[in-house]
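Annotated sample (chain length 306).
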Amino acid sequence: MLPEHAEAAVARALGQLAERQLTQVEILSALNAELAALDPPVGAISASAFNRFSLRFSAQARRLREAREAVVGALDYPSYFDRLVRTKSVAEGITALGFDGRQAMLHKVGVDLSGKNGTDTNAVAKIAPTQKVFASDTGELTWNIERPGLGFFAVNTPNTKLFTGFPDGRTIALGDVSLAVGKTRLNWATVSLVSRDATGFGGAARPASILLAATGFAANEGVEIEKVSDTEIAYRNRSDWGNGTVLVEGVPATLTLPSDPAKTRCYALDQSGARKKEVPVEKTEGGSKVVIGPQYQTVWYEIEVK
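Output written by the structure step:
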């Protein structure tokens, strides 16, 4: 327990955690300096203790934010069970309770089986029938179906970036990171970036250790694929899934990061996570550019920002 005269310093640290503009290391360093300057001084908080506290705080803050933006259908348990029996279903969702099912792409949703604490359907903003882009109320998740048959899903948080779907020549903006995926075998790919130390992606001259993964088509060696239609493929022999080594496609993609190119290095990794070849980093407007592709014979990359 910290003494009462340390409460103001702790409150400032909490505010900085909520703003997510500084790293935990920077916040803890400033907090300990402030605690040491108090009269009487307060002992330093260890990194492990502060990390445990910040994780609990972040989870609590996230739950509170989601709870204020939840869409909840109310249905008492006997009625819920009766619906399942009558409709021969395994679950009931908000759609059966008068809500637009697409609300699940915008908000946290749920069903209250006490039947008492549901959201008023009239209090929920309507979604236009023609809407094609859905962004979650946190701003972190996006579903885009503007182009028929060429949709994608994207994640944009301070320490995680993800694209999965059909790039179709588009450059995808993910906050301070942008991504352009090239031609793949199925015109589809998944690319993810994770800031391993939760320090972002090299912006504001911050160091970062980033794991990049890029995947496309994958199959067992020897399997034969045939085209069923313009949007479908299948195994030619449904009982033969191939054997031996799993073969994966090398995905071509160009990434831009907000980091200083002079302080940024990229490495192709082998299956054990060891660096096997350096990938060039180029200077581009606003930061660094990294171009990956099948020539590196991997789906994993490490990006290091000093």
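Annotation: The first strand starts at residue 70 and ends at 74.
Annotation: The CA atoms of residues 193 and 212 lie 5 Å apart.
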